[in-house]
Every structure is written in C-alpha cells, then in structure tokens.
Amino acid sequence: MSTSTEQSFTHLAGLEHQADEIVKRYPEGKQKSALLPLLHLVQAKDGWLRTEAMDELANYLNIQAIEVYEVASFYTMFHLKPVGKYVLEVCRTGPCCLVGAESIVQYLKHKLDIEIGETTADGLFTLKTVECLASCGTGPVLQIGPEYVYHENLNEEKLDQLIESLRSKS
Amino acid sequence: MSKKLLLEHIDKDGIQNLDTYVKYGGYAAVAKALKSSSPDQIVEEVKTSGLRGRGGAGFPTGMKWSFLDKKSDKPKYLVCNADESEPGTFKDRYLMEKIPHLLIEGMIVSSFALNAKTSYIYVRGEMMYVIKILERAIAEAYAKGYLGKNILGSGYDLDLYVHPGGGAYICGEETALLESLEGKRGNPRNKPPFPAVWGLYGCPTVVNNVETIAAVPWIVNHGGAAYASIGIGKSAGTKLISACGNIKNPGVYEIELGLPVEEFIYSDQYCGGIANGRALKAVVAGGSSVPILPQNLILKTAAGEARLMSYESLADGGFVSGSMLGSGGFIVFDDRACIVRNLWNFTRFYHHESCGQCSPCREGTGWMEKVLHRVEHGHGKMTDIDLLVDVAKNIEGKTICPLGEAAAWPVASAIRHFRSEFEEHVRNPNACLAKHLHHEFAMAH
Fold first, then answer.
1. A74 vs B124: CB contact, 8 Å cut-off?
2. Are B287 and B89 in contact (CB under 8 A)?
3. Cβ distance A128 to A88 under 8 Å?
4. What is the distance in angstroms between the CA of the first residue and the CA of the last residue of chain A?
5. Mapping DSSP to helix (H, G, I), strand (E, B) and coil, where does residue B194 land?
6. Residue B177 backbone zone (phi > 0: left; psi -120 to 50: alpha; other: beta)
7. What is the pLDDT of residues B70-121, one digit of tens each?
8. Gyration radius of chain B's alpha carbons
C-alpha cells in the first residue's frame, strides 16, 4: 500500500515494516481499517499527531486527509497538540470516584502545580482525566502514556513514589 | 462451592502460556470441534446451552449465530467485542489478561461454527498491555497450528487479529465497533440491517462479547445440556460479576446464575459485606447504564422474594422496582455515598461519550449533566428534578443506539428511588456529604 510518490516519509520512517504488516491484517481494498493501529504507531513514535503525520498516513493508506483528521479527532487517545513526556490520565468515572479518584486528581494538581490538560514547565508531565479504565475493583487508577501502564489502588504515598521515579528516569 | 467454568484454572502458574493452558485441558474444544463436529452441530449445542450474550444485552447466543446469512457468498466474520468500558465492568480485562488462550480457543471454535476465515478481537486502546498479552498468545497459537492454514489437519483455515480501539465508549455498541474497525468514527449504524446480514465490510458478521466467546469451549467439551443444567431457568450457566465500590472484597467473581444477591454482597466468598463498617445504601447491578436500586429492592423484589443474580430476577418489577443483570458490573454504594453526586458523575460520562450523531443524546446528555451539576453544587431549583425526568424520557427510545437509554435509565431510577435526596440538595446547598469530603481534602492540599 506504499505510496508511489517520491515524498519522503518522516513520521513513518523506521516503521514501514510494521505498518505494512498491520495493513495486511485487513482484506485487500479495506486498508483504511489500519488507520487506528497506525495512528497509535505514529503517536507512540512522535508523542503526538502532527497534521503532517496525518497527511502522511492518508497518503500511505491512499485515503483523503480529512478521513484521518475526523478519526483522530473523534477518539480521545490521540493527542492533536504536544504533550509532556509522560501523560498522566486519572480515571474520573463513578466507581473510581467512590474510592477517592477526585482526591487523587486534586493531589496531582497540587503536586505538579498544573491544571487538568496542562503540562509542567519542564515538559515532563501532562495531567489529564480519562473515562472508565475497566479497573473499577482496583481504583483509584491512572495510566501513564506513552506506554499506557496502569497504576492501581493509588494513594498519596504511591503517587509521590511514582512521580519521583519518573523524574529520576528523566 | 460455586461452579467455575471460566475461572477454574485462572490462578495456575503460567496459564498465560499455551503449553500450560494445554496441560490443563486447553484447546481440547478446538480438536473436538474441528475433528468430530460440523459447524451446524456447534451452533445447535450453543443453542441448547441457553448461553446468552454476556456483554449486557443478554440475547441468546445460539440464536444470534443462526441469524448469520449463510447463503451469502461474501466472507463471514466473527468480531469479538473487547471494548470493555462500561463503568463498573472489568471482567473481560481480567479474563484476557489472566487466561488469554481461553478467549483465543473460543474464537477458533466460534469462527469454525460460523465459517469465518478471518476474525478480529477489537480491544479498547487503553488496554495496550492486554493487547500485547493477546498478540503474544495468538503468535503461540499460530506456532502450534491452532491458527493459520489447515488447523490440526482439519482443512479449516483461520486468521485471527487484534485491533486496538482509540478511546470511545460508544465503540462497545456493535455497529459503532464495526464502523471503527473499518477505520471510521465510531458512529452507530441504523438497524436493520443487523450485522448478521450487513456487518463488517458489508459482509455477514457476528459480534460477541469476550465472556460469551470464552464460554464456548466449555460448552463444546461438555455439551449444551450440561451448561443449561447450571444456573436457573433461562439464566443458564455461570456469569462473571465484577464487584466494586464500597465493599470489602472488590474483584471478579464467577457465580452460578441464581445466587441470592444478599449472599453475593455479604458472603466472605464474594464481596464480604460493606467496607469500613458502613451500611448498604444502593447497588447498580449491571454496569452504570442500568437502573440503580436502593437497599430494600436489591435484596428483595417488590413482592418480598429474595432477589437473585439472574437476568429474570434482577429485572423483576420492570423499571419501577427492578433493574438488569447487564454486563455484571456490580457497583455498591454505602450510606455515605451521595446519589446526586454519583449520578452527575455517570451523566457526565455519557455526555462525554455520546458520539453526537443523534440530537436527543448529544443535547440531552449535556442538558442532564448541566442540571445535575447545578443541583449537586447547590444552585438547583425544585423544578430541576422533574426537568431531569422529562429530559430523560425524551432521550429514551429516540436514538439510533442504546447509549440514549444508558444515559436516561440511571437518571430516571435515581430520582424515582432517591427523590428526597435530590430535594434535600435543592433545599440545602451544603447537603452533600461527598462534596464536604472532597472540599476538606482540597483545602488540606
């Protein structure tokens, strides 16, 4: 499904083999099905989805750019603006709130000195809320992108350790 | 001792690996089905079993399979709905994480029954680590000849792929899921035509939940009649219940359908009672979209009979005094939980997750959230309560997909059973205990 143009691909650079393998999962002519997996792939590499990257995917899949934009803007997992190195997404849905998720959000806002949707000045952390992560029995929970690792049964002590651990890795 | 058909081996060391799974009897159903059964025989066994869809709707699985347009010369598809994102529900994630080969075995047998040559497991994108577990297990199954060409020398070919979602609750609705799998926005389709006739890529398709498909190997191994003998009446077999909220032992439990609700809540084998010595206030028994029931009505029906964990008993009384088994997402509220605040939270969820295709849902969920926000935050009017009921009525039944009902039912039921709590919030802006707790915490930091 590779393009026949001579345009140089930057956002798919190094991912061509993976991308080709993903496209093969779907019937011939139905390559658009590969869009969500490919958006994940590019975002994992770049951190977020630049317009140029979406244009490149449209070209690769032989679909219109608008088809990529409308999908990328529909699903909450895709970042259309730059985010921090680590995206902290706290589940804010009912069952997690029953066991303290609202307090977890408050604590993180205070600790990182940012509001929901903002990124710390050092570019390390973006704080977001997310809808039900299917971790209702082990809430409160947050996931950390770009790896989407779950951290469950949270309390302030665990959050302190987590933030320090991420800071020390950077 | 309760029967365990799905979770029997879940705690065995290494059960994520194919060899260990086989050691405990795994993939016997694939061998039995492909070597000594016809696809129609498997469909009949599933019909006999009485298995019903475990994603929430409870539609008979064998009947759904028999609707597949077999005369069509188009490819047939089986798609597993693993987009678990109904608040309170986490049993599918548990199954896929702990025993991925059970789902894969179910996919192989079910695909064979439906004559599907390509099948997909649509997993919600947030569960990236589950996707990796499934992909590893699928690679093992290919390597051992359970997937690919000429499976176990039977002449049957099957390719199985995992497809990641992008974070949208609506993609748990089967036609929205298919749209998403086709690389589009997750906008539900009008039905009919149903997916059995016009599904993935316009081809005949069956969409089943993870737990439903995971039950199929047991049915093939032991027979549909054996499965039907478990449970109670038309609620055959076992059901995974994910229990959470203010209970001592949150977790995923496999129960035989028909277990008394009271036993499920208070037995140490299951929830272990209410946490922190509090009292039971209410339960949402089947995921956030089903009607909430107060303490008296969740333990006993309006007629005074013990309420059971079954499709029929939980629905007894209709939406006046009953609820639904739904997805089995069992959310328990203690006597400190604020119904208004929790309802606002749930409604905010549905507003956020509405795909925006139908105006009653797009506008109505936002309207309900706005009104509930002001009631919860001390700015409500007494007329807001009936306004909420009115908006809920004007969403229900007027949308393409059931997200409208999912948003409306909790509102209608919460006001029906806890109206005085809403009135108290209007009369006294400081009525909400949850708000106090939240405020105290915020002030401390």
1. no
2. yes
3. yes
4. 38
5. coil
6. alpha
7. 889 999 999 999 999 899 999 999 999 999 999 999 999 999 999 999 999 9
8. 22
Residue A132 to residue A130: CA distance in whole angstroms:
7
**Per this entry, what is the length of chain A?**
170
Give yes or no for B61 touching A (CB within 8 A).
no
DSSP state of B189: P
pTM of the model: 0.95
**Cβ atoms of residues B111 and B104 within 8 Å:** no
Amino acid at B141: A
For residue A105, the chain B residues in CB contact (below 8 A) are none
A39 Cβ contact list (under 8 Å, min separation 6): A49, A54, A57, A68, A71, A72, A75, A78, B166
Residue from A154, A67, A148, A70 nearest A105 by CA: A154
Option in A32, A136, A148 nearest B90 (CB): A136
Is the pLDDT at A114 greater than 60? The verdict is yes
- C-beta neighbour count of A124 within 10 angstroms: 17
CB contacts, 8 Å: A92 with chain B? 345
Contact: A131, B85; criterion CB under 8 Å: yes
Q: Which residue has the tokens 């909220």?
A: B245
Q: Considering only CB atoms, which chain A residues are within 8 Å of B341?
A: 97
Distance between CA atoms of residues B94 and B74, nearest Å: 35
What pLDDT is attached to residue B436?
52
Both tokens assigned to B53: 């869809």
B126, B185, B251 ranked by CB distance to A133: nearest:
B126
Q: How, if at all, do strands B251-256 and B280-284 pair?
A: unpaired
Q: Reduced to 3 states, what is the DSSP secondary structure of residue B82? A: strand
Contact B167/A at CB under 8 A: yes
Q: Residue B123: which residues within 8 A CB-CB, separation 6 or more?
A: B82, B83, B96, B130, B131, B134, B162, B163, B164, B165
What 8-state DSSP symbol labels residue B148?
A: B
pLDDT > 70 fraction of chain A, expressed in percent and rounded: 95
Query: Which residues on A lie below 8 Å from B329 (Cβ)?
Result: 136
Determine contact, residues B343/A93, Cβ cutoff 8 Å.
no
Please give the structure tokens belonging to residue B236. 């055959």
ipTM, interface predicted TM-score of the complex? 0.94
Indicate yes or no: CB of A135 within 8 angstroms of CB of B90: yes
